[in-house]
Specification:
This protein is mainly beta. Helix content is 14%, strand content 40%. It folds into two domains: 91 residues, Thrombin, subunit H; 110 residues, Thrombin, subunit H, CATH 2.40.10. The chain is built from two helices and 13 strands. It has a six-stranded mixed sheet. The relative contact order is 0.13. The model has no long low-confidence stretch (mean pLDDT 90).
């Protein structure tokens, strides 16, 4: 998969590259890859978050000038929407949808219970209230599960949190379940909130390992 990179010195530079209607980002690059090429786009904000977005080249400009440079427009896989939504919220200085809490797009190993068995997969995003877990396991809405979520620093102990499945997404390569946490005490909730705060701080400062950005 071809790898491309966009670096923004200021937040407002993002809007000059982002096409909201097509949900695509323009990447100046010469020579420009062919339309349809699968790519991983690394998006970096100076003094801000760094993330990886997977998608395809929707169109390309093979000749240009200073105002309209040579480059490509990248559209993203449906499963990358949480990452893109977070970046848009970061650029705008808040949430895109004020009715919802922001979700941190991060890939962390997670072990969870499923019908008396133990499975291991990855988170897609999380916040103080819940998470989305990639899985093809049969976890029906309303099912209780115990999650053991690894921290980015492998030297630190994983965090255990109980949860209830609140939604399911089709069981394909992007399938999974949304869970709402069921904290057993205020102390447990406070520990989790502290973890999320530290996680977001490291994400916004671009300090997370690349494996967590996939």
């Amino acid at each position: 998969m071809r790898r491309l990179k966009l670096v923004f010195l200021e937040r407002d530079e993002f809007v000059h590259h982002y096409d909201e209607q097509a949900a695509s980002l323009f990447v100046p690059i010469d020579p420009s890859p062919e339309t349809g090429t699968r790519v991983t786009l690394e998006v970096v904000f100076q003094q801000g978050p760094r993330t990886l977005l997977h998608g395809s080249i929707a169109w390309r400009r093979t000749s240009g000038n200073q105002r309209l440079p040579v480059g490509v427009a990248v559209t993203f896989d449906a499963c990358e929407r949480p990452k893109l939504t977070y970046l848009i919220g970061f650029v705008r200085g808040g949430l895109v949808d004020k009715r919802r809490r922001r979700r941190i797009p991060i890939r962390l190993p997670v072990a969870y219970t499923s019908l008396d068995s133990r499975r291991v997969n990855f988170t897609q995003d999380l916040n103080e209230e819940g998470a989305f877990v990639r899985t093809a396991a049969a976890l029906g809405v309303g099912a209780a599960t115990l999650l053991t979520i690894s921290q980015p620093d492998s030297h630190l102990q994983p965090l255990e949190v109980r949860a209830i499945v609140v939604r399911e997404v089709a069981k394909d390569s992007h399938g999974g379940v949304g869970v709402r946490f069921n904290f057993r005490s205020c102390d447990e909730q406070e520990r989790w909130n502290h973890f999320v705060k530290r996680l977001e701080h490291d994400f916004r400062d671009g300090r997370l390992p690349e494996a967590t950005l996939m």
